[in-house]
Specification:
The complex is a heterodimer of chains A (about 300) and B (about 170). By secondary structure, chain A is α/β, with parallel strands linked by helices. Helices cover about 35% and strands about 30% of the residues of chain A. Classes of the chains: A alpha/beta (about 300), B mainly alpha (about 170).
């Protein structure tokens, strides 16, 4: 049960490439954060800073009040991290590796580890370097979950896994959160798979944080307004620069409105005689994520469908 | 061997509607239809979370909402128990207004689908009977209960073309 505070973290690689610009957010204990962004947006760099594997150029990550870089505070698997292609010793068998790792962790849960190995159908007698890509990922997850971490950091944990394995992995993570109040940071491109699992969403674009909040707060903040009216009236409204996105299909205009930046223009539209109908509803999270991640200019519906 | 919990009522989560609403609706249907009976144990938050791949806080909201609706009651040391639905004190006006809005959409889409009002009414009656038994019968839910050893047919909710588009978007 540990909150995570990302305190104005910036990071610049030795090559001079800036990966993160002043990223700041606070995550309560027990939250499951989905971190999304295009390739190269800075997701992995941020997660490595959170795991204490990388020292930010400026700022710090605090986990339960401790600096994430302070390994003494984190030793024993309080924070665990899994990335695609996890580095694992090649020549051990799965069973030997689990035996070898267990005493390194203060809170290693042997029966939980055995249950996970069974559930993920990991071949315990197999050598680690003979495991499939998915097998290595599952093993890395067992190694990350069995210490019963306070904070679990998952960088593309579903990559390379088949559909049943993805379900098993997510269920194992959820069981841990339900039992232990583990705080989870999860980067994934598989939005459809992770959407319901999350309660927080953070979007990175070019190393900057676009939003980070509870999903229900974001749904209240971003609203979709659908208008019907004359072509001229809709064209005029669509040309406005107040909208986060617009979509036009015949007599129908859809606006995506960030109500933090622009008050909902319902009264304004109601007073226009050329606008016959104005509905406000939720933005589907999938669309919201896409808009915030890639930031789309105004589009006609044909382009959106294509 | 750990077994993924199987829920005693079918839920088919679709994108585009809040998971809390969808799961609470599916559970209410099972309770009001007699598939889950008073005294039955309701799945725990952990079981709901794992079975449906929901954040435990989201699963907790489903249980809280059903408790507020009087369909579930927390029994310390036992878990959450299905309760006999409270007798309705006449129609709930707030919910009625929400229903009117949904009916507006339904009648327009029925008309566009080439149905007349009688056909739509017949569809509604059939749905009602499938969910809750014959209307007016004191033994409502009995027909659903008689089927509990068979898989409960998951009658898909009619999805409007716009809702489907939204789901894909």
């Amino acid at each position: 049960m540990m909150p995570v505070l990302v305190d104005h973290v910036s990071h610049r690689y030795g090559t001079g490439t800036a990966a993160l610009h002043d990223v700041a957010f606070a995550l309560p204990a027990g939250a499951i954060l989905g971190l999304v962004g295009a390739n190269g947006a800075g997701k992995s760099t941020l997660l490595q800073c959170c795991a204490g594997l990388r020292t930010p150029t400026r700022g710090a990550v605090r986990i339960g009040g401790h600096d994430a870089r302070d390994r003494r505070a984190l030793v024993g698997g309080t924070v665990t991290w899994v990335a695609a292609d996890p580095p694992l010793p090649a020549h051990e068998t799965v069973a030997a590796l689990l035996r070898w790792v267990a005493p390194l962790h203060a809170r290693w849960d042997t029966s939980f580890a055995a249950m996970l190995v069974d559930r993920l159908a990991l071949p315990t007698a197999q050598r680690v370097d003979r495991l499939s890509r998915g097998g290595r990922m599952k093993l890395a997850l067992v190694l990350a979950l069995a210490p019963r971490p306070a904070v679990l950091i998952l960088d593309e944990p579903l990559a390379g896994l088949d559909v049943p394995a993805r379900d098993d992995v997510l269920r194992a993570v959820l069981g841990t959160v339900a039992d232990e109040g583990t705080t989870v940071l999860l980067a994934s491109h598989e939005w459809g798979e992770i959407e319901t699992v999350l309660d927080h969403l953070a979007v990175l674009r070019d190393g900057r944080l676009v939003v980070c909040d509870r999903i229900e707060t974001l749904q209240a903040r971003f609203r979709r307004v659908t208008l019907t009216g004359t072509d001229d009236a809709l064209d005029a409204i669509a040309r406005g620069d107040r909208w986060l996105g617009t979509q036009r299909a015949g007599r129908l205009l859809t606006l995506l409105v960030d109500t933090d930046a622009t008050p909902l223009p319902v009264d304004e539209f109601a007073s226009l005689s050329d606008v016959t109908q104005c509905d406000v509803d939720d933005v589907p999270t999938r669309e919201l994520v896409r808009r915030l991640t890639y930031g789309t200019p105004s589009t006609r519906v044909a382009e959106v469908v294509a | 061997m750990h077994v993924t919990p199987v829920l005693p009522f079918p839920v088919d989560l679709r994108p585009g509607d809040s998971p809390v609403r969808q799961v609470a609706r599916a559970a209410a249907r099972a309770i009001l239809g007699g598939v889950l009976r008073p005294g039955d144990r309701f799945p725990s938050v952990r079981e709901l979370a794992e079975a449906l791949k929901l954040h435990p806080n989201t699963a907790q909201k489903v249980v809280t909402q059903l408790q507020q609706e009087g369909l579930l009651v927390a029994k310390p040391g036992v878990g959450t128990i299905v309760q006999a639905p409270p007798p309705a004190a006449g129609p709930d006006e707030r919910r009625r207004a929400a229903l009117e809005a949904q009916l507006d959409r339904l009648v327009v889409e029925a008309r566009q689908a080439g149905l007349d009002d009688a056909a739509l009414a017949a569809m509604l009656t059939a749905r009602w009977q499938a969910a809750f038994g014959v209307p007016g019968s004191t033994d409502d839910g009995a027909s659903a209960r008689g089927r509990t050893d068979e898989p409960v047919p998951d009658v898909p909710t009619p999805v409007s073309p716009t809702a489907r588009m939204r789901g894909r978007a």
